[in-house]
Amino acid sequence: MNAEQLARILGPWSREGVIYEELAAAIRYVITDGRLQPDTRIPAERALAKYLGVSRNSVAAAYGMLRTEGYLHSRRGAGSYVSLPPRADTPRGITWAPDAAPAEIDFAMACLPAPEPLLTQTMVETAPELARHTDQPGYDLTGIPSLRKAIADRYTRGGLPTLPEEIMVTGGAQQAWTLLLRLLVSKGDRVLMESPVHPTVHNAIRHAGGRPVAVSVGVDGWDVDMIRTTLHRARPVLGYLMPDFHNPTGQVMPAQARRAIAVAAREAGTRLVVEDTVSELSAEPGRLPLPLTAHGNPSRIITVGSMSKVCWGGLRVGWIRTTAALIDRLARVRESLDAGNAIVQQYIAARVFESYDDLVVTRRRVLTEQRRTLINALRDRLPGWSFAEPTGGLVLWADIGRPESTRLSRAAAAHGVRIPAGPRFGIGGTLENYLRIPYVHPPETLIEGVRRLALADNDRSKPSRLDLHTV
Amino acid sequence: MNAEQLARILGPWSREGVIYEELAAAIRYVITDGRLQPDTRIPAERALAKYLGVSRNSVAAAYGMLRTEGYLHSRRGAGSYVSLPPRADTPRGITWAPDAAPAEIDFAMACLPAPEPLLTQTMVETAPELARHTDQPGYDLTGIPSLRKAIADRYTRGGLPTLPEEIMVTGGAQQAWTLLLRLLVSKGDRVLMESPVHPTVHNAIRHAGGRPVAVSVGVDGWDVDMIRTTLHRARPVLGYLMPDFHNPTGQVMPAQARRAIAVAAREAGTRLVVEDTVSELSAEPGRLPLPLTAHGNPSRIITVGSMSKVCWGGLRVGWIRTTAALIDRLARVRESLDAGNAIVQQYIAARVFESYDDLVVTRRRVLTEQRRTLINALRDRLPGWSFAEPTGGLVLWADIGRPESTRLSRAAAAHGVRIPAGPRFGIGGTLENYLRIPYVHPPETLIEGVRRLALADNDRSKPSRLDLHTV
User: Fold this and answer.
1) Rounded CA gap, B29 and B406, in Å?
2) CB B404 within 8 A of CB B470
3) Do B314 and A140 make contact, defined as CB atoms within 8 angstroms?
4) Please, are residues B349 and B307 in contact by the beta-carbon 8 Å criterion?
5) What pLDDT digit, counting tens, does each position of A67-121 carry?
6) Interface pTM (ipTM) of the complex?
7) Domains along chain A?
8) A124: contact with B, CB 8 A cutoff
């Protein structure tokens, strides 16, 4: 990584206090935030000092401080690398610490609590059924038949005829994507993705050795002409799209764009992977356009879904919808990835599908109320922010009016709100104008969270030399 | 793949019937067996015909037959590639089909049925505990505290002092290996492994872009001098070893070898990963040498374990024992692999650990009886086979006296026994003298299975032109 790249990722950082402390704080933040990955080589002191227009001593002192804290380490004659100190704060939400019950409000995780008592009651009711099958070895690469059938039937009733053997159960949608990348992408292959994009979608492409090719989802949604041109020129082997309540923008891809992209992908020889994890969470059920998946055959337009957004992330039940032939190939690859699906929660999941219609209705109702609360709170407390009202999904994508999302995120932490900066969803430091706000909490928490964001925004508005350094 | 490589993988194949049918059968077998992976390019007809000493027409007819069946497909001007037909028989055992109840005896899966009623009773008892925590988002990259503590405490009582934060829960030992490879291995890095080795260990290295460097585990166990030389010359970044009841040979690494390998790895800068999934399943508890892990610090000698062999594979609960610092880095990488652990079975697993001592005792008793039954049956029915009596674990590694394991495996299938040929545990067609036999079934099944193996062995003994083609 060179100085310019690091500066872009750092975004605007305050130079009000002691320069080296401020610089260290800015670097520490993007490390804990996940934007600067462990084992990244950071630029030499001299180069960074020159680029930032600060003294080399300041950079040396900042690096030294981070080295002492464990955020950097040196390799013999090979420069400094990002690391994580042994007890670095792993973001809450991805570390299971239910008893901690902190006063912090979590605006980072876009997921709902489990439906109760449905989930644990189902767990109890399922035990006798499972007990009839625990004499088996317990290895399963594609899913138990009852769950594959439940998922296939749900697609069929939703208008996409699907057989159980066209469904492969996975440990969530992210694992489904990992598996598809492992089978279909070789080192150096281009992979199309949206920008903004959830960082795990992007990181999985890089880990698979693929070269991400980003197409932008802006305020006007997907730019079909640009996507068509990108497909024809770059000819990616694979593309990842989220047409229904895109994460993080909340946008819905229009029917015509779906058709056009499906055609262009077919012409370019690009297989598409369509994530539909929140498609059911529509504020206006029945108003979504035909799924993108309907515009091609399931070997060329693959769907990945999960129960994590409608039911609970703690189940880790997701799936791939494609042809039986491709599932056979995926199963082979999967054997050496994780040896397959756990059995226990598959039986639970299959039974949860028996009352999935009711669950979806409840979720929609709750989310509609929470979305309304969030929108009203934002209009009330942060009238300068603008956003399109989402018509489904779990998140709102706010334009905060100035390219200071990273700074706002830092200020929010001081007020007890954990929220990732916009660039977490971008590539190399873009999206400083945006913030993703999930509405997965009860109204009172949302109102308090927005109140704290407004305080943080107010801190941010204090004049500082900072504004000179925006990118 | 060239003709010589394919011939080596095919091993000896019968030329008694119609040549092209026999050749097609031999190729089909190594495809369904997993030794010839989908998307492998197979040699041109002319080259293979020349190498095998058969007519080009025979090869063309065999390829044509396989193409019709879906085992091969052509790419424009780029030759023929292995594929799997849509409804190819996925090996039983890795596809969850508990209601099929076939007459086939499964000598492929080395795993026990779940302990019942313990498992499903625990599931019922755990529901209220889980219900207190399902208001959480459900995302967890490192494991719930009670399970990390239960695993750490078990290591501590076993003589390896371990803190909960030095344990990362994973979806099984295979996933633990995938995760370690993803973090620690870059494209082209050398990775040490044993040969024979479980194929998923080997495949995971290849999928991670690593270059496997094999060290042999022969009848006399590990060749420490050779391993030392290999470590010093190849300087692999990572090595995978299974010192306790090595899979598939069942061997136990002597204490002195453990010390010597730990020292050599340290000198070579090689991190070691030690699998201890069956260490507790010893016929002579307390007689195992000190764990290899004890000879280094947990950042350089990492342990991967799981509940799959002692408890049940269907739980998919495994772990990594290393430093808290490395676990933090693994957690970051894991976010884009699968978004983490399911919560449900972790609570079950934590509770199962409360009676783990009893469970281990029961498993040892059952396995001792089954092992004795298998040994007696083999001595009785197949006196020409030789083997070391395993002192623990789940499998016996038999020398079948001639390099015809692939042919025997095919013959066994005709007698209703599913057992992988020895080369499944080798690299590129070696180990034709061996067969791995798990003793995870009740005595009557083991006796019947060996009876059928003897019938298959008898078929195999019929004279044929085959013997000319052994490798």
Assistant:
1) 9
2) yes
3) yes
4) yes
5) 988 889 887 677 889 887 765 444 545 666 666 555 789 999 999 999 999 999 9
6) 0.86
7) 3-82 (1.10.10.10), 94-110+359-468 (3.90.1150.10), 118-354 (3.40.640.10)
8) yes
